[in-house]
């Protein structure tokens, strides 16, 4: 069943009898000192380094948080040396965590939870506090990112924390807005081979919101250097400056940053007045299926936005797979869904449902699928209108000029129909070091036949066939690819993933798969509980 018509909806298989996963979104204790693990099978001795992961680890201070994204950041480190693994974890000592802990109540508002007024204040003081602008959280729970050789944990506000990748201790709070005029940045920067980092962040000015492309140099000038030298390459005005799009990440090819302006919108009036109305930030985020999605291309060298805009039907995307230029086209590969309401489905009460209520929640959500858009780069005044410009052989994507500066695109699937039996695919990863911004053959991800990932998938783009690792009641994290020494082929290496289960206490393990065969090489069993997390990186010590 092809999916190239804008009128067609994403197909998926309805499921029944989903298991309850409440333990995967319960608070846990930190493990600040390294503990040994029990290795089963073999972990290759050439792996030297640590898998660093981030995600929520505490979901209440007196009162409960409402949204999965609100939980306090818990950092994890799996240190791998000589075929052995140790584990440690530590809560990020953010201002949010510290203040909440001191009072044992939610002091700082998060994405889906509004902090309640201080009960120690009198009625008039509590009333006035509703008119204060909420301070952005520094609960950096989304990812580990690297700037100028230093590791930071990041969320999507203006505050990151520099951390020691060995001890996981918080070293320094770093505020983007002290260096450039932005009010936040994504937790998914891209990198050129020389270490130059690119990111995106919004700014809110008197004239409304703007999207900004950020560049951070690879070298630091001194030992205390953080984001010095960061620059805004380009500012883009939203379609509606009072209702900019939400974005979690962006694409990057060799020469272009690709910003995807999707119809997940942020109503700035509702967000700014949320505290007055007793509403949290997520109440101002909504899906507008009547708006098209727009791809903006920004030249990385000149910082100029290309005059041609590329449009497609309403879709939502959280993560891109890769983007590369070839034969006058830019291929943009990403995981996307025809429905953009899922961000407000990840309330903790939904994740803790069971029985028919859980099945219904899952079966009404759109599934994310890997898709490719083919964007023609050489559009001129001579380019014919209303004609498919995609001349790539074996590609079913289309690109049609509506006007000299508007190209309407439809996608091609980067999968076969059988992926629907695994709930689509998210948390995509590639052999980034060698194949980011280049033509590639393989990508890896999690299958989502539940509200969280429940399988690991390796997709071959040539055959559209995939390999799967899946076992009952086991829930894998985002796969991380590590290149093997002397690697010659794209998939020479291993995949690391943290596996957790809701059915057995303290039964976490680090899984190591052969990236080529997708067979298990070994696992390191950790006698702790870990909640389902978001993202991470491998920090090589080789």
TrEMBL record:
Subcellular localization(s) per the UniProt record: Mitochondrion
EC number annotated for this UniProt entry: 1.13.11.71
Alphabetic keyword roster: Dioxygenase, Iron, Lipid metabolism, Metal-binding, Mitochondrion, Oxidoreductase
Pfam families in UniProt: RPE65
GO BP: carotene catabolic process; retinal metabolic process
A cellular component term, taken from the record's GO annotations: mitochondrion
InterPro entries found in the cross-reference section: Carotenoid_Oase (IPR004294)
First-tier enzyme category under EC: oxidoreductase
Cofactor(s) recorded in Swiss-Prot or TrEMBL: Fe(2+)
GO molecular function, one term: metal ion binding
Cofactor binding mode and count: Binds 1 Fe(2+) ion per subunit.
Record-listed Fe cation binding positions: 188, 248, 319, 535
Domain of life: Eukaryota
Catalysed conversion reaction: 13-cis-lycopene + O2 = 13-cis-10'-apo-lycopenal + (3E,5E)-6,10-dimethylundeca-3,5,9-trien-2-one; 5-cis-lycopene + O2 = 5-cis-10'-apo-lycopenal + (3E,5E)-6,10-dimethylundeca-3,5,9-trien-2-one; beta-cryptoxanthin + O2 = all-trans-10'-apo-beta-carotenal + (3R)-hydroxy-beta-ionone; (3R,6R)-3-hydroxy-10'-apo-alpha-carotenal + O2 = (3R,6R)-hydroxy-alpha-ionone + 4,9-dimethyldodeca-2,4,6,8,10-pentaenedial
UniProt entry tagged with the keyword Transmembrane helix: no
Summary of the function given for this chain in its UniProt record: Broad specificity mitochondrial dioxygenase that mediates the asymmetric oxidative cleavage of carotenoids. Cleaves carotenes (pure hydrocarbon carotenoids) such as all-trans-beta-carotene and lycopene as well as xanthophylls (oxygenated carotenoids) such as zeaxanthin, lutein and beta-cryptoxanthin at both the 9,10 and the 9',10' carbon-carbon double bond. Through its function in carotenoids metabolism regulates oxidative stress and the production of important signaling molecules.
Record family assignment: Belongs to the carotenoid oxygenase family.
Protein known as: Carotenoid-cleaving dioxygenase, mitochondrial
Recorded name of the encoding gene: LOC107677445
């Amino acid at each position: 069943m092809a999916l190239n018509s804008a009128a067609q909806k994403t197909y998926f298989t309805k499921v029944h009898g989903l298991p309850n996963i409440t333990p995967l979104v319960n608070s846990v204790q930190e493990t600040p000192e390294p503990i040994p693990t029990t290795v089963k099978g073999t972990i290759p001795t050439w792996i030297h380094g640590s898998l660093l992961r981030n995600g929520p680890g505490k979901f209440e201070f007196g009162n409960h948080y409402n949204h999965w994204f609100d939980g306090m950041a818990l950092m994890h480190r799996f240190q791998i040396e000589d075929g052995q693994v140790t584990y440690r974890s530590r809560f990020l000592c953010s201002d949010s965590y510290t203040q909440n802990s001191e009072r044992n109540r939610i002091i700082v508002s998060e994405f889906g939870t509004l902090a309640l007024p201080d009960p120690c204040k009198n009625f008039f003081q509590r009333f006035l506090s509703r008119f204060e602008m909420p301070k952005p959280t520094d609960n950096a729970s989304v990812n580990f990112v690297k700037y100028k050789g230093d590791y930071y944990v990041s969320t999507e506000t203006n505050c990151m924390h520099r951390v020691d990748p060995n001890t996981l201790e918080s070293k320094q709070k770093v505020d983007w807005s002290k260096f450039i005029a932005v009010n936040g940045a994504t937790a998914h920067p891209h990198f050129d081979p020389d270490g130059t980092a690119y990111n995106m962040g919004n700014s809110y000015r008197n004239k409304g919101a703007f999207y900004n492309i950020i560049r951070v140099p690879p070298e630091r000038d001194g030992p205390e250097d953080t984001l010095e030298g960061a620059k805004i390459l380009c500012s883009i005005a939203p379609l509606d400056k009072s209702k900019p799009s939400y974005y979690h990440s962006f694409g990057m090819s060799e020469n272009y940053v690709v910003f995807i302006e999707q119809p997940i919108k942020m109503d700035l009036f509702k967000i700014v007045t949320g505290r007055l109305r007793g509403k949290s930030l997520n109440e101002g985020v909504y899906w507008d299926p009547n708006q098209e999605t727009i791809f903006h291309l920004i030249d990385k060298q000149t910082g100029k936005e290309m005059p041609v805009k590329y449009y497609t039907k309403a879709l939502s995307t959280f993560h891109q797979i890769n983007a590369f230029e070839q034969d006058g086209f830019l291929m943009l590969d990403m995981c996307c869904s025809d429905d953009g309401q899922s961000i407000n489905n990840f309330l903790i009460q939904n994740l803790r449902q069971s029985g028919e209520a859980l099945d219904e929640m899952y079966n009404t959500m759109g599934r994310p699928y890997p898709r490719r858009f083919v964007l023609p780069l050489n559009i001129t005044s001579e380019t014919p209108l209303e004609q498919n410009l995609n001349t790539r052989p074996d590609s079913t994507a289309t690109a049609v000029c509506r006007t000299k500066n508007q190209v309407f695109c439809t996608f091609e699937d980067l999968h076969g129909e059988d992926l629907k039996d695994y709930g689509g695919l998210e948390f995509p990863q590639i052999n980034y070091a060698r194949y980011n911004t280049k033509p590639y053959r393989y990508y890896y991800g999690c299958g989502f036949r539940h509200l969280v990932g429940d399988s690991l998938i390796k997709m071959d783009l040539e055959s559209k066939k995939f390999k799967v690792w899946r076992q009952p009641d086991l829930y894998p994290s985002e796969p991380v690819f590590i290149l093997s020494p002397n690697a010659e082929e794209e998939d020479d290496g291993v995949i690391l993933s943290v596996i957790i289960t809701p059915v057995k206490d303290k039964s976490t393990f680090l899984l190591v798969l052969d990236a080529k065969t997708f067979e298990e090489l070994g696992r390191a069993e950790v006698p702790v509980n870990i909640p389902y997390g978001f993202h991470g990186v491998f920090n090589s010590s080789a």
